[in-house]
Amino acid sequence: MAQADISRVAAAAACRSEWQIVLCSDIPVNATKRLAACCSANRPLPAAAAAMVYAAALQQKGAAQEVSRPDLAVMEAGGPFSGAIDWRFGECLTAASADVPVFTQDEAGGTQVKVVSQQVPPLTRDLIRAVKRKALELSTPPHRNRVAALQSGGSESSSGDSGSGASKGKSSGTGAAPFAHPGGYAGAGELGTLQWRLEQQAPLQAAARDSLLTGRWVPRNVKGSSGWHPPTDTPAEGYGGPYPMEVLRVDIGGIIANTSTCPAAYPTGAPLAQCGHTAFVELDGTMAYKSALAYVATGDARHAAQAAAILTAWSTKNREFGVKTTNGPLEAAWGCAAMSRAMEVLRASWPGFRQSDLSAFVAWANARLMPNVDYFAYVMSAYPKGSDTRKLMYGNWHAACADCMVALGVLSDDRARYDKGVELYRATVNSYLKWGRGEYAAGRILGESTETFRDIYHTLFGLGSLVQAAEAAWAQDTDEYGANGYALASALELHARIVNAWDKRDASMLPGGFKLFSSMPAAPAGCAWRWGPETQRWASFNATSGAKCSDLAGGAKYVLGAK
Questions:
Q1: How far, in Å, CA of 501 to CA of 522, rounded?
Q2: Cis ω for the linkage preceding 142 (within 30 of 0)
Q3: Which long-range contacts (CB under 8 A, 24 or more apart) does 64-70 make?
Q4: Where is the composition biased (Low complexity) (predicted)?
C-alpha cells in the first residue's frame, strides 16, 4: 500500500469524534480518500478552543432571552386574546385532535413524558383567510397599508381601509390558480407586520433586526479546527461574495473531488474540500435570503442589490451542477429553497427588481438544480411510492426537496411543481415522523423522527425544511401543519427539549432512554460507529475492511450533533 493510502486509512480509523461521526459516517469505509478528507475537514477543536466556543454560544443565547416581550400582553388577563376565542368564526367544523408530548421533572430529578391531546379546528382555506382578515382588522390603518403595499408589489396605498388580509395573488402568467405573492416563506402579512412593528420600535423586532444585521446572538458555525465560520452578520457592503462556480460537483459529506473548481475569491480558512457546499449553501444561499430580508427591515437598497447580485451571479455563471447520484440533490434543494425565497421577497418589495433577473433565475434553476432534485425524489427515492427502505429514507433530504419544490413553484407560478412539493412534504411527514404512533409506538416517543437517534443535526435540517414548506403553504391559505395528525408539532416539542438539555449539558432533562454523546461507549479498537436507518440501531464496522464488529448494546438513545 502506498504511503498516501496508509495515511488516509489511518485518518479514517481515527475519525471518531462526535462531529466526525455526524458528518462523515455516511461515506463508505473503502472510499478512503473521501473519508479522510471529510474527517480532516471536521477535526475537533482543541479542548480550550471548544470550551470558548461553547461559552460564547451560551452567552449569546442568554442575552437573547433578555429581550422584552410586551407583545405577549395580548395573551394576559384583560388582553384581546386572554379569553376563549371562536377560531371557527361561526363555521360548523368538527374539532380535530393534536397530540403533543409534555415534559415534567419528577421528584427524583428525571424527566417524565405525557402525551396531551389538544382540540383544534381543521383549518380550511376559508377559515385561514378569516383568521388573517380578523388579525388585520384588529390592527391600525398604517399596518394594513404595509401589508397592502407588499401584496401590490411595493406601491403603498394611501387608503386606511386597504389590506383586507385576504391573499390577492399576482400571477406571472401561467393561467392556473395564481399564487399569493410574496409567499415563498414569509407572506405579505408577516413582512408587513415586521415593517410596521419596526416603525413602532417594538423590542422583539428591533432586537431581531439588530441580530440579522450584526450577527449578535447568532452562534458561530465553526468549521473544523481552522476556526473559520460563515458570516453571522448581514453587511450592506463588503460581504466578499458572490462565490459562483462554473462547475459544482459535490459528493457525500459535501466533499468535492477537484478543488481547482473552487471560487477564486473563496475565503481564507474556509474548508477547501467542501468549497462547493460552503460557497453555494452556507455563503451565497444564506446571504441572498438574509440580504433580501435586511432590505425589508431597513429600506437600505444596498442589501437588495447584494441579494440580486448573488442570484444573478449563479444563474449566469453556473453551467454544471451535481453529482445527482450523491450529494447533488441535497445541495441543489438547499440553495434552491433559500434563493427562491430571496427572489420572492425582492419581487414584492424592491423597486429595483427586474423581471429579466427572475426569468433568468427560474430558467437556471429548472435547467441545473431541478434535475438533481427530481432525480432524487422520483428515481432514487421510494417515498412517493409509499416505501420506507434504505438510507434514502433518512428524511431530511426529502424535506429539503419538498421545500425547494414548494418555494420554486410559488416563485415561478408553477402549480404542477408546487403540488409535487406538497405531495412530497406530506409523504415525508407521514414516514419520517411515524414513530410513537400505531405499529411504530413500541419503545418510541411521540415526536421522534427516523433520524433522531442518528443525530440531532440532520434531524433539525429535516424539521426546518418541513416548517419552511408548511409556512409557504400557509402563505397560500392552506394548512399543512395538520399532516399525519399534527406530527410536526410533536417533533418540534420533543427536539426542542433535547436541544435545551444539550445546551445545559443536563442529561436529567432528557426524556427517558436518552443519553448525551459523552456517555456513548467507544467503538472496539480499529472499528467505528455507524448508524443503521433500517435497524434504527448503532453498529461498529472495521475502519479498513468495512466488516461488522459489533452492535451497540443497551438500547440507549444517544444525542449526537445537537447545537
A1: 22
A2: no
A3: 64/207, 64/211, 64/217, 67/203, 67/204, 67/207, 68/203, 68/204, 69/203, 69/204, 70/202, 70/203
A4: 152-175
What is the C-alpha separation between 248 and 281, in angstroms, rounded?
12
Reported as a single tens digit per residue, the pLDDT across 64-118 is: 667 888 877 777 777 766 777 666 666 677 788 899 999 999 988 899 999 999 8
The two counts, helices (H) then strands (E), for the chain are 18, 9
C-alpha cell at 534: 433500517
- Quickly list H helices, 365-508: 370-375, 396-411, 415-432, 456-475, 483-504
> Which position has the grid cell 467507544?
522
DSSP designation for 482: T
Q: Which residue's entry shows cell 474556509?
A: 270
Cell numbers representing residue 280 in the block: 453555494
Contact 341, 184 (CB under 8 A): yes
- pLDDT-wise least confident of 68-72, 288-292, 538-542: 68-72
Residue 216's Cβ-count burial label (10 Å; 0-12, 13-18, 19+) is middle
Rg (alpha carbons) of the chain, rounded to whole number: 24
Q: Is 411 helix (H, G, I), strand (E, B) or coil?
A: helix
CA gap 31, 125 in Å, rounded: 51
Strand partners, 497: none
